[in-house]
Amino acid sequence: MGSKTEQKFPGLGVAPGVVVGVAHVRESGAITIPEYCLTPQAVDDEVQRFNDAVELARRQVRMLGTKAKTLPDAAAEEFEILIDAYLQMLDGSRLIRGVERRITDEKMNAEFAVQSELNVMAAQFAEMDDAYLAARLEDIREVSYRLIRNLTKTCEQNIGDLPEGSIVIAEEMTPADTALIDPAKVLGFATVIGGAEGHTAIMARALSMPAVLGASGLIKEVRTGDLVVVDGDNDQLILHPSEKTLLRVKNRQELQRQDASRLHQLADLDAVTRDGTRVTLNANVELPIEMDNVVEKGAEGVGLLRSEFIFMNRSTLPNEDEQYEIFKNIVGRMKGRPVTVRTLDIGGEKIAPALVKGFGESAKSALGLRGVRLSLKQPEIFEAQIAAILRAGAHGPVRLLIPMVTTVAELRKTKEIIKSVRNKLIKRGIQVADQLPQIGIMIEVPGAALAADALAMACDFMAIGSNDLTMYTLATDRTDEQVAHLFNPLHPAVLRLMQFCIEAAHRANTPISLCGEIAGDPTFTAMLLGLGLRDLSMSAANIPKVKQRIRELDLDAAKMRANMIMGQTDSGRSAMLLDDFNALAS
Ligand code: PEP
Ligand code: MG
After folding, report:
1. pLDDT score of 78
2. Quick check: helix, strand or coil at residue 98?
3. Is 24 a catalytic site residue?
4. How many Å is the maximal CA-CA distance in the chain?
5. Quick check: CB of 479 below 6 Å from ligand 1?
6. Domain check: are 275 and 350 in the same one?
7. Closest by alpha carbon to 25, among 199, 173, 180, 208?
8. pLDDT recorded at residue 2
9. 403 C-alpha to center of ligand 2: Å?
10. pTM, to two decimals
């Protein structure tokens, strides 16, 4: 606006809608550096905390490095040199060694140790009065501030307390950062790093908050206080929007409001196809604040409660009582409709510091100690969570869902723990449901999908996690925007695995649902119903759209089209066949 020229930053629109607001750039603002003296016993933990911050910084810098490839040639070259310099600095440089020495010998807390080492280096470089060294100092400063930010988790405090009408602009938002956003204040967000299928994107959709991820150049150009537009429908962030752009945005917002109110009228109607087939539509929930929307959008139950979010953004573990109160509250809000609580699924991009301590890289890897694997390694934490879920089961129907299952043995072990925890609760005179809850498993590992016939006989229900099933089948990181074009649930390999699971479940008479992101995308509804699914769980915001699609569908036609798609070997052709079918029916 005014004298400033409009500038567009293309990215991935991961949550639909368009909003105008005031930018809050997460990188800005002074950081308050805590200063305290360590006891001798606390030194080892502090060194570990520092090493974790260094490791996180390496990961952040490497991800920034991949973005460099998308910049114009000259800029990319310069950026790559910088990234190399940062990585070298994070690898046993004088800065890192100096900080470790200050923590161990001088018993300084890590943040203060970084600041002190930086101050000393800055003073020495200044004495040398050399232009090259002055530039090097800027790099050291940049790396030091990154470390301090990681140590103080500055972003978390910033995001939690923003003025109304804000739009968050950040280099990266982890799922834990996103969980801190107050939807009453923040209208949308945009980042430099991030893929469309990661949990940050899922959270944005769950909060109905337009978001654009993977947009290069934002941090350099956007300043806190600038007017920006997040356009999730057109994959872009617009800086300094012109009057004409603002008018267009206003018109689109009005149309979207009309659409929403039309869809709202479906809330009390059943999800039933034209020929009378009933489909269950449940909600996926990450945070208790989503519950208002779950009830309002007419969800028939909670099909997936991602309990790991209770463990994020805190350095201590929530105890059994605290978890029980949260589950009880959600069960109460559903007024007799079933709630499926998934046990902890930490690992990969979902990090909870108190849970991964001591497990090193494995607990942060998508192929390591993720989900039930991590839970079985820490039986006391697992038992406390299961106790909380079983106690919540005394207040309404609750089911237990186990993530990242690969073998029947993992399921068997988990069942034993559940039974033993239940017996202990009963012995202590604590109220639980009369029956053992139903115990289900996520099918999200290709090996589990291929063994679905065996797993179906050993559990009470199955839920296809199409997000991870796609990621692991196609070896495509769901959080990496560089490979987003390869993440394709219509790939024949993914479709065949899903079909095999659905048929195996039907043969075993084991109920099966799907709770990945495609459940909430009306483009896929005909395909999923055609494959035999009758139970879908999705972000509450998507329930009305999917219900509308179901109500206009003819099941026989959907089955025939799904069959035709299963005969294809090219996912592009499958997408076309599905699009044609959707266009015909609407
Ligand atoms: C999935 O993988 O499809 C799923 C629903 O689980 P999450 O997205 O939490 O990994
Ligand atoms: Mg998953």
Report:
1. 62
2. helix
3. no
4. 82
5. no
6. yes
7. 173
8. 47
9. 7
10. 0.78
Q: Which of 263, 275, 204 lies closest to 547 in space, CA to CA?
A: 263
Catalytic residue among 199, 240, 395, 491: 199
- Measured between its terminal Cα atoms, the distance across the chain in Å is 40
Supply the Cα-derived Rg of the chain in whole angstroms.
25
Q: Tell me the two tokens of residue 305.
A: 């409660």
Give the nearest ligand 1 atom to 444 CA.
2
User: Same domain for 135 and 224?
Assistant: no
Tens digits of per-residue pLDDT, 361-392?
Answer: 787 788 998 999 999 999 999 999 999 999 99
The two three-digit tokens of residue 544, written as one number: 């009305």
CA 539/CA 207 separation, integer angstroms: 9
The residue from 223, 247, 262 where one domain ends is 262
Across 302-360, where does the E strand assignment appear? Answer: 302-306, 339-342
Q: Flag residues of the chain having pLDDT under 70.
A: 1-3, 27-31, 67-79, 129, 131, 133-135, 154-158, 585-586
Does ligand 1 come within 6 angstroms of the Cβ of 465? yes
What count of residues does the chain have?
Answer: 586
CA 333 to centroid of chain Cα atoms: 24
Q: Tell me what pLDDT residue 349 has.
A: 76
Query: In terms of residue numbers, what domain contains 573?
Result: 269-585
Type and span of the H or E element at 584: helix 571-585
Tell me the CATH number at 209: 3.50.30.10
The answer on 72 and 203 residing in a single domain is no
Q: How far apart are CA 509 and CA 505, in angstroms?
A: 6
Taking the C-alpha atoms of residue 159 and residue 181, their distance in angstroms, rounded to an integer, is 6
- Ligand 1 atom closest to Cα of residue 468: 2
* Cα separation values, 104 from 34, 42, 47, 151, Å: 17, 10, 8, 17
Residue 514, pLDDT score: 98
Asked, for residue 1, whether it belongs to a domain, the answer is: no
> Other C-beta atoms within 10 Å of 528: how many?
25
To the query of whether residue 199 is one of the catalytic residues in this protein, the response is yes
Choose one of 305, 306, 472 to mutate for the ligand 1 pocket test, by most ligand atoms within 8 angstroms of C-beta.
306
CA angle 520/524/528 to nearest 5° reads 95
